[in-house]
Design a protein that fits this description.
Chain lengths: 273, 478
């Protein structure tokens, strides 16, 4: 996946549109960065509009790592026509507070959405993530998932929704939210919702929140790792399914970005393992 | 039909025998012979009249009037079922059917006695209950408890009697678990409450067969506002069962109860409800329990009838080692909204909770699970598991799931799962290939679906719940 687009948030004007023509197949990497350290506006809204035409396929990776001075207002809207598919992997390591709203409309029959997001946060940031899949077409399928790792006094509110319209028979949808609370004082609020308006469906959601498990920590520490190292390894393990969806070159970079955000001061991981 | 399964044949036979509908079994009404009845609508005078009829102490009268002010001030809930048709001014808030509560069915007026006989309450009492309370419109007309339990110090009466005879216990707990300002309907109940059960189980006493209260609304466009207070002292156990039905009328009625439960150290309380209101009933109930150190609180909550139900039994885990469990089933049929769920608050370490919710919607009904689990910061070893399963039986019906999980502690484990589906073709095909009709197969699958809940009810109730489900399922095709 070498088609990379870098967006400098301090230079951005207007929404980003990603159209995919009928039967076209596209792969894209989007990166949100900051060009000029001094000229960053305090509040930033960015709009991303993705439209995949009939039979089109898009594979999209997004990495966003903006400093704490930026308050993020992010809106991603997705429309999928019949037989189209979208695989989207999003890693959000922004340090500032903000709201992130992703709304996918599966308009056409047999449309497929596969969304996986990961989110790391530290300090006292509060972030609200909404992730909605609206099924209108018949036999459409969605897999939506958000994983998070929270440190210090970070506060995450996750609102997920699977909505199946009366016409959308044959819908197959799964929504998942997995939060790791790295220390006392963080707060994870999870609100996964289902609104199902017809009967011929298979829809489910799962949500888990918790700290690193004691038995897992114990296992790693019995192998010679310190508690901090063991915890770090578990955090990386928790988010590893996201790294695996990135192209190889990007995966490594993503891993080290997560590690420096969440495990900074925890000592080197690789040597310890 | 193949001869392979006698069990299957039995069930087949059972299903065929189910005949009568709600209207005949529960939907009948007796003529109104109430001896005190307030005017339609709710004013300060209504509240004073209720208080006068009960000859209450001043503190309770003040509590009511304060609550009325809160009710008038608090907003209607902005979420949940559709309450736009609910007309507070059209309701009658108090109707006293008899002069006092009796300990013998024979002392009751003939029509009231006949009502309970038709509902099978005296028979159930003889067979398998330790005590029975029966409420008819606004008052408990009957309350009785087995003498051996009475000798052990178990108190089981209507709340009015408790206010008179045990004011120290009532004053200590009444309105502390569900304060009047909790929500609009808690305020309404606090202003006009009447009837309900008061249960106190002394230290170490195990009431090993259940106590039951049966709530019957007989009047039209009527509001029933019972108030239940259950206290299980250290190391005690009690199982309390609540049943409710009403006649089918064209005008809507309102049932808005408040249930307050206190499980002290090492106590265990199980509270089972089989709610089977008629389809003209708004059922808007606040139920909450406090569980202290190593106490266990269990809600078993079956919601079958009513027009709109909004009910979320709550457990506050206040002491270390406390456990909470909610098992809930909702059945939403034609024109019904069942907005039900559970709330669990973990306030202490080493606490755990389990919520299992099952819902079925058919004929355009809407079943919603609405729940909350909250874990405070700084606690250790807290666990919660929530599971919601929903079945939708036709394309007109709806199912919603609205859970909230708020976790602030590292040493916590929170798991939530929900799924919505229809009856699978494979299951139907299997059963039909064994000689069942499609409808019978669907009934059987639904019965299997709610089995975890039914198992937790005493035998007689389990049978009743199964029958009700079958009744509701009549004429439906998976």
């Amino acid at each position: 996946m070498n088609n990379t687009m870098i967006f400098y948030i301090d230079e951005m004007t207007g929404p980003i549109r990603i159209p995919v023509a009928p039967d076209e197949t596209k792969q894209l990497v989007l990166r949100f960065e900051q060009k000029n350290q001094t000229a960053v506006p305090k509040e930033l809204s960015r709009e991303l509009s993705i439209q995949v035409g009939p039979g089109g396929n898009l594979e999209l990776c997004i990495i966003s790592a903006l400093p704490s001075s930026v308050q993020n207002m992010v809106n991603t809207s997705i429309v999928l026509q019949e037989r189209s598919s979208l695989k989207i992997t999003e890693l959000i390591l922004d340090e500032g507070a903000g709201t992130y709203h992703t709304e996918a409309i599966l308009n056409g029959d047999e449309a497929i959405l596969d969304y996986a997001g990961a989110y790391g946060s530290r300090n006292r940031t509060k972030r609200i993530h909404t992730l909605e899949a609206h099924h209108f077409g018949k036999n459409s399928k969605s897999r939506t998932s958000l994983k998070s790792a929270l440190k210090d006094s970070a506060h995450l509110v996750f609102k997920g929704l699977i909505h199946v319209d009366t016409k959308a028979t044959g819908t197959d949808a799964y929504l998942s939210n997995r939060n790791m609370v790295m220390n006392d004082g963080c707060r994870a609020e999870s609100l996964p919702q289902l609104q199902i308006e017809t009967d011929d469906v298979a829809c489910s959601h799962g949500s888990t929140t918790g700290g690193p498990r004691e038995e897992e920590l114990f296992y790693l520490m019995s192998r010679g790792l310190s508690q901090t190292e063991a915890k770090g390894l578990l955090v990386m393990g928790h988010l590893s399914s996201i790294f695996n969806r990135f192209p190889a070159s990007l995966a490594e970079e993503a891993e080290s970005a997560v590690s420096s955000l969440l495990l900074e001061g925890n000592g080197p991981l690789i040597e310890a393992a | 039909m193949p001869a392979e399964s006698a069990v299957l044949q039995d069930i087949h036979q059972d299903i065929k025998q189910i005949g009568s509908g709600y209207e005949e079994r529960f939907g009948f009404a007796m003529p109104d012979r109430s001896i005190v009845r307030t005017e339609q609508g709710l004013t300060r005078e209504t509240v004073m009249a209720i208080s006068d009829a009960k000859n209450e102490p001043e503190w309770m009268r003040r509590f009511r009037l304060r609550s009325l002010e809160l009710f008038q001030r608090l907003p209607m809930p902005s979420w949940g079922g559709n309450l736009s048709q609910l007309r507070f001014d059209d309701m009658t808030y108090y109707a006293k059917p008899t002069e006092g509560s009796s300990r013998s069915w024979d002392d009751l007026p003939e029509e009231i006695k006949r009502t309970y006989e038709r509902l099978g309450v005296p028979e159930a009492e003889r067979k398998f209950l330790a005590g029975v309370g029966a409420q008819y419109d606004s008052e408990m007309v009957y309350h009785n408890i087995r003498q051996d339990l009475e000798k052990k110090g178990v108190l089981f009466s209507d709340v009015e009697t408790a206010v008179r005879e045990h004011p120290e216990i009532v004053k200590r707990y009444f309105g502390t678990i569900v304060p009047p300002d909790d929500n609009k309907f808690a305020a309404l109940n606090s202003a006009v409450w009447s009837g309900g059960s008061f249960v106190y189980v002394p230290k170490g006493v195990h009431v090993d067969i259940p106590l039951q209260a049966y709530f019957r609304v007989n009047s039209q466009a009527f509001g029933q506002f019972e108030r239940t207070l259950i206290i299980a002292d250290e190391g005690s156990f009690v199982h309390y069962i609540e049943g409710c039905t009403a006649p089918v009328f064209s005008k809507d009625s309102l049932h808005s109860a408040v249930v307050e439960i206190i499980a002290l150290k090492n106590a265990r309380i199980r509270y089972s409800t089989v709610q089977n209101w008629s389809s003209n009933m708004y059922n808007l109930v606040t139920k909450r329990a406090f569980a202290y150190e190593n106490a266990v609180m269990e809600w078993v909550d079956g919601n079958i009838g009513s027009k709109v139900t909004m009910k979320y039994p709550a457990i506050f885990l206040m002491g270390e080692g406390a456990r909470g469990e909610v098992l809930s089933i909702a059945f939403a049929g034609k024109g019904q909204e069942q907005d039900t769920g559970a709330k669990i608050f973990h306030f202490a370490s080493n606490t755990s909770s389990v919520v299992t919710s099952k819902s079925i919607s058919k004929d355009g009904g809407t079943a919603s699970y609405r729940g909350m689990v909250k874990m405070e910061a700084g606690l250790h070893n807290i666990k919660s598991k929530v599971e919601c399963d929903a079945l939708i039986l036709d394309e007109k019906s709806k199912s919603n799931t609205y859970p909230v999980m708020d976790i602030r502690s590292e040493d916590a484990s929170m798991e939530h799962e929900a799924k919505v589906s229809k009856i699978s073709e494979d299951q139907l095909f299997y059963l039909m290939s064994r000689g069942l009709t499609e409808e019978e197969a669907a009934v059987m699958i639904v019965n299997g679906f709610i089995d975890p809940l039914v198992k937790e009810l005493p035998m007689e109730y389990a049978v009743e719940l199964n029958r009700l489900i079958e009744l509701e399922m009549e004429g439906s095709v998976g």
